[in-house]
Amino acid sequence: MNAFAALADDTRREIVRLVVKNGELTSTEISQNFQMSPPAISQHLKVLKEANVLLMKKDAQKRIYSLNQTGLKEMEDWILDVKNLWTKRLDKLDRYVLKLKKERSNDKK
Question: Are 72 and 53 in contact (CB under 8 A)?
Fold first, then answer.
């Protein structure tokens, strides 16, 4: 699953917000913030980890989650690419509209 699909779920977005806010959280600390079973939260964490949104490290019996900067960088790069494409298209449209206005202004004279 890609990061965008993983973040389409409200619970997973809230998990990411919690992790970002706190830096690192154990799976137990994360599950305490939700009214669902720890196994359900574990499934959400698994999806986020597989989508490269979160990193997980083990410390004895604990699983500690943190934000995966690399995964978010890939999403950011994609968003910026799309934004740049739209900006170019809108700039081209703006030039065309200005050209039409200028031609209409010249026709009225």
Answer: yes
Evaluate if residue 9 carries a pLDDT over 70: yes
**Structure-block tokens of residue 40:** 């359900």
Q: Return d(Cα 15, Cα 13) in angstroms, integer.
A: 5
For the stretch 44-69, pLDDT in tens is 999 999 999 999 999 899 999 999 98
Is the separation of the CB atoms in 101 and 58 below 8 Å? no
Cβ proximity of 19 and 30 under 8 Å? yes
List helix spans (H) across 1-109. Answer: 3-6, 10-22, 27-31, 38-50, 69-108
pTM assigned to the model = 0.75
Closest by CA to 10, choosing from 28, 32, 36, is 36
| Token output for 58 | 């083990």
